[in-house]
């Protein structure tokens, strides 16, 4: 059977086939081996040192841990073997990211090194640059950092002031400027630095950190991820050979933004791993801690928390692996067409940049929720630095800020959808117009759908109509001024995030039911519960949006449409949450 896959953003207008998606329940033996290798590294090397890492008592500790991880292949898994990596497929990279996730500051250092630090060279480097730098980066002999942010340019990254000027003999660029918040900055050997040639052409450069003129600021005193190195880096007449220009002059934005697509995707995989661990830690405590003569895990209020932590984590995980398979499949298609594998990966991640932005917001907010509830389950001890959950709480917070803040990623999600529509790459207009017609005609409720998860699939199809209705009406109303209506963009982004996550859970369960039906029943209820709550949020966000720009008969008609499009059978979510919580409580940790 020939498989056809959805293009980026098409999830809003088309239905994905469960067979196309990839689910954690089908990891291969090799993939399980990789996940165990990552877990083993955390268990034996990272967690026993977690206090020391955070206290930064030994400045070499993090460097040595990165080196050891590099020797095992954990840092260069996605780098082709010809450049010293393991060259594993994209799904295996995702698995590794997830299993390295619950490692706090260490995970941040790994992500900065292997992701934004190494990928610019892998994707945009010349063959010489790749041969020179990648083997040592992939094996952890050298460490990398990514220098984009400046004191005056964060979200507005292209407003950077760091400047590069070609030397008179044409052999060097002279870089002057200042970068800020640079992860791994204190020890990185290789820096990807963005600077404007002659103050105009935004360009990437490879800078060796020991080049004269490169100096470091003090380590930042941070709220969390205290063990990760973060500092300012100053460039004072730093002379770098012209061969170290990365990609093309004036095309630095391509490097900066494309690398962030993968960064956002991997962040979601990592925080999903973190959320599982935080849930397990909280459940273990809830089973041990007794109040009123019984373990606190026996209280309904605590069960609700445990279940909701797990349900959201399950959704984040389902969306992560769904997207992983989309990227992997696209890579395979492009390779079949004759594209180089590395370039295929870059193009595939760009194709699914909307989904990557969605995941970044989804995963980071799930981890925040889970960490917050973990502290609550610990009660007073949750507030103590002597217990592990305070670290989860502090360390989680950064994920909503870096790799593009969640506001920027929400804006991007909607803006990219609209841009692709304008360019004719995504046809949102035809279905949006059909929905407008449907709104003014007599509703056809049709027959009750039949088949496995049929009511859920129908509810998802209807939810897509709700989003298209709101988006279509908002665009018609504001036209070119729409992007100034950020509150409505936030509503739409949240609707898209809920839809994508809910659909991912349903697809996962549908596939699971076809391969391991005995495992599917509990997951089926989880997916239904998540869908139920997502539809309620989609309804609320839709209402906020349309009441902001519509009134009178038009408003009434859209509110009725919204209600119809977000309808779902009443289900007993309390019973489902109890069932989920009981299963986790009995297992003594996250077991989904
Ligand atoms: C611990 C840590 C590690 C980091 N590591 C790195 C690194 O390795 N390399 C690197 O280059 N950078 C790094 N950063 C920087 C990080 O990417 C930026 O902090 C982030 O992009 C936000 O920029 P900013 O801090 O200047 O905030 P600002 O851009 O000033 O944003 C402040 C607030 O305004 C909102 N906002 C801004 N613009 C808009 C808009 N157009 N519409 C709506 N809301 C808006 C933001 O969402 C945010 O809530 C790191 C930051 C931290 C804290």
What does this structure look like?
With 592 residues, this protein is an alpha+beta fold. The protein has four domains: 24-143, Butyryl-Coa Dehydrogenase, subunit A, domain 1, CATH 1.10.540; 145-251, Butyryl-CoA Dehydrogenase, subunit A, domain 2 (Beta Barrel); 253-319 and 350-403, Butyryl-CoA Dehydrogenase, subunit A, domain 3, CATH 1.20.140.10; 409-587, Butyryl-CoA Dehydrogenase, subunit A, domain 3, CATH 1.20.140. The protein is built from 19 helices and ten strands. The chain has helices at 29-46, 50-55, 59-72, 90-100, 105-117, 119-124, 127-138, 252-288, 300-336, 341-351, 353-378, 389-396, 406-422, 429-440, 454-478, 486-515, 517-549, 552-565, 573-587; strands spanning 144-147, 163-166, 172-183, 190-197, 201-208, 214-219, 230-241, 245-246, 290-291, 294-295. Strands 1, 2, 3, 4, 5, 6, 7 and 8 form an eight-stranded mixed β-sheet that branches. A two-stranded antiparallel sheet has the order 9-10. Strand 2 and strand 3 form a beta hairpin. Helix 9 packs across helix 17. The longest helix is centred in the middle third of the chain and has 37 residues, at 252-288. It starts with 28 loop residues before the first helix and ends in a 5-residue tail after the last helix. Flavin-adenine dinucleotide binds at residues 112, 145-149, 154-155, 181-183, 222, 230, 398, 401-402, 405, 407-408, 411, 486.
């Amino acid at each position: 059977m020939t498989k056809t896959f959805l293009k980026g953003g098409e999830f809003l207008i088309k239905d994905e086939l469960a067979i196309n998606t990839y689910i954690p329940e089908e990891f291969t033996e090799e993939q399980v081996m990789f996940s165990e290798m990552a877990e083993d590294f955390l268990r034996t090397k990272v967690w026993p040192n977690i206090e020391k890492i955070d206290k930064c008592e030994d400045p070499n500790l993090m460097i040595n841990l990165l080196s050891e991880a590099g020797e095992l292949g954990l840092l260069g898994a996605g780098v082709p073997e010809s450049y010293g990596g393991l060259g594993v497929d994209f799904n295996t990279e995702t698995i590794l990211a997830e299993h390295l996730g619950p490692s706090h500051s260490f995970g941040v250092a790994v992500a900065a090194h292997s992701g934004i630090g190494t990928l610019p060279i892998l994707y945009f480097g010349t063959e010489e640059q790749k041969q020179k730098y990648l083997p040592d980066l992939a094996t952890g002999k050298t460490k990398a950092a990514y220098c984009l942010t400046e004191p005056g340019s964060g979200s507005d990254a292209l407003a950077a002031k760091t400047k590069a000027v070609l030397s008179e003999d044409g052999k060097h660029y002279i870089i002057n400027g200042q970068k800020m918040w640079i992860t791994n900055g204190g020890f990185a050997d290789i820096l990807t630095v963005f600077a404007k040639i002659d103050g105009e052409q935004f360009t990437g450069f490879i800078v060796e950190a020991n080049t004269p003129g490169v100096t470091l600021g003090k380590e930042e005193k941070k709220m969390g991820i205290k063990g990760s190195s973060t500092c300012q880096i100053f460039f004072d007449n730093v002379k770098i050979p012209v061969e170290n220009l990365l990609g093309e002059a004036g095309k630095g934005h391509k490097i900066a933004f494309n690398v962030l697509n993968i960064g956002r995707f991997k962040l979601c995989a990592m925080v999903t791993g973190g959320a599982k661990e935080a849930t397990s830690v909280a459940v273990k405590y809830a089973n041990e801690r007794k109040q009123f003569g019984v373990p606190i895990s026996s209280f309904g209020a605590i069960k609700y928390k445990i279940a909701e932590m797990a349900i959201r984590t399950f959704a984040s995980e389902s969306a992560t692996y769904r997207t992983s398979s989309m990227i992997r499949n696209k890579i395979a298609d492009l390779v079949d067409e004759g594209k180089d594998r590395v370039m295929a990966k870059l193009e595939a991640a760009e194709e699914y940049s909307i989904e990557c932005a969605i995941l970044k917001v989804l995963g980071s907010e799930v981890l925040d929720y889970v960490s917050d509830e973990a502290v609550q389950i610990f009660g007073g001890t949750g507030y103590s630095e002597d217990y592990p959950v305070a670290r989860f709480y502090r360390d989680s917070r950064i994920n909503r800020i870096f790799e593009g803040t969640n506001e920027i990623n929400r804006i991007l999600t909607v803006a990219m959808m609209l841009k692709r529509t304008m360019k004719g790459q995504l046809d949102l207009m035809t279905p949006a117009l059909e929905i407008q017609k449907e709104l003014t005609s007599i509703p056809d409720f049709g027959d009750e759908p039949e088949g496995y998860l049929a009511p859920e699939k129908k509810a998802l199809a209807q939810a897509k109509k709700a989003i298209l209705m709101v988006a279509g009406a908002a665009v018609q109303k504001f036209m070119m001024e729409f992007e100034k209506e950020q509150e409505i963009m936030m509503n739409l982004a949240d609707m898209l995030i809920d839809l994508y996550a809910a659909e991912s859970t349903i697809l996962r369960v549908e596939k699971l039911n076809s391969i391991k039906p005995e495992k599917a029943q509990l997951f089926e209820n989880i997916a239904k519960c998540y869908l139920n709550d997502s539809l309620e949020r989609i309804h609320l966000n839709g209402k906020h949006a349309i009441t902001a720009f519509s009134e009178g008969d038009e408003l009434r008609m859209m509110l009725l449409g919204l209600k119809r499009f977000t309808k779902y059978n009443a289900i007993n979510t309390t019973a489902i949450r109890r069932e989920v919580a009981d299963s986790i409580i009995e297992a003594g940790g996250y077991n989904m």
